[in-house]
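anyone seen this seq b4? input:
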Amino acid sequence: MGNDTVNCGPARPPRQPLQGPVSESILQAPPHGVTVRMYRQGLGDCFLLAFPTAQAGRSYYVLIDCGVLQGAPNGTANLNAVAQDIKAATAGQIHLLVATHRHADHISGFSLAHNVFSSMTIHNLWFGWPEKPDDPIAKQLWAKSHLAQMALTRAVAMQPAALEQVKSVLDFLGDLSAVAGGNPMDPVRALLKSDAAPEYQRPGGPLSLPTVPNLTPADSVRLFVLGPPTRLDALAQMNPASGSNETYLATGRLNAQTSFMMGVLNACNVSVPDLDTMSEDDRALSELSHPFDKALQIPADEARRMEFFSKYYGFDDRSPAQQPSSPGAEQPPQGQAPAASNSARKRGEQSANAAAPAAAAWRRIDDDWLGNAEDLALQLDNCINNTSLVLAIEFVKSQKVMLFAGDAQVGNWLSWHDLPGWKLPDGRMVTVPALLERTVLYKVGHHGSHNATAAALANAAPWGLELMCDPDLVAMLPVDSEFANCVRHWPMPWPNMMEHLRPRTNQRIMRLDTGIPQTNPGALTNSAWDAFAGQVQVTDLYVQYTLVDS
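predicted toks r here
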């Protein structure tokens, strides 16, 4: 059980769409505790929770996300099968819908299975604070993110082969044209048909599950909001504090990422209306993105018409096969290699100017800015992950905790250390370290990626998973490792993280792709393993776990 590598050998037969069976009866919570259903739609998150109420036969349903990564096998069909099961299991009543963040692998189901979800009743809807439409910081964040996504999308169109990995990262964001000028969360908001308005949560607590007409409150749990952080530097941080600082959200100065964003748009002669709504500093970046002052610039189209540049800078629109052989053509200075773009050097691909004679193209710097594409894509992806709404759900009776971390990455996790703690009505103080220490169910962040489960603070003090020391800890891991590793070439789940997760859970890890081991992996006695396995139900459609609060 210690090996998470995937054999990506000969092609496997195409996967079949999920068939169900769709629930034939209402999903019932245990008298004390919760039933958690993790759906198996592919690489993405979709969790249905059922809490008990005082009304016989009535449960309180919380749905956390529903999506799949763009390009996953049978994505639309699987999400519709999942939505049908959710409708049947809840009698079409979702008492609280939580949309953790705007990545497609968390929210695409609300669009791709819109007909099913729109036929259900969504009573309450929670987002993280960055989704609040009138929040000035959020507006700035999404304007920059949209600009970066637009630049990356156009760069991929220019160099699809060289930027294949960038394209795979953009798949988390979904189709830009599908939200043209809109908001990817709008299809989620449209599902809320009750009188209640969406709530935009900031770190704090304790909160109760929202009330629903004609249903007694589900008062067995209280909720604490740990993220998203309210500091912009925390939103931008994807790596540990001891590593490189992330500067995606920095304003007022030029860096590699902002140069790329403006460079690609200038290269495409694109008008960017978003800039009209930004600050003067942001608009100034368009000018700063050029390596020379405007007075010293010569547009490429004009340079093509000038004999000097045409001869010495390799402006030749013919394909390499059409170009004449010119062994005597000017070469780079002695010992100097042609200056291919960074992206070309990384992949061995030809540069964007592959059609130009190689002997002269080295003089130009037209496409060197493309080398920052991967960095910007990762900055964008991880910043959005850090906007994840993170919930710690505490059982009032036992004080056991469930942690649903969305796709929170390092900046989000580390920001919890700054939270002051909260006073309960009985006078007891609750702190984040205490919540982590009492966690008995961890929804593993971002499909088990390398920087989505924190281990320590900047001063090396234990944090995150290293504080989860409850002997009853189990984990639910929404990963499709074959698709992630063999198709996207992403190491999910990250082996080092798994090496720490296994002993902390005594191998009690429920996975979207593989369920649970059929036999005792050996970390527990047979009776203890059988007790755990008895709490788990695995079908083609979902992995279900019943946590009894005793």
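The domain at 33-133+183-237+386-548 is CATH 3.60.15 (Metallo-beta-lactamase; Chain A). The longest strand covers residues 59-66. kinda curious what u guys think
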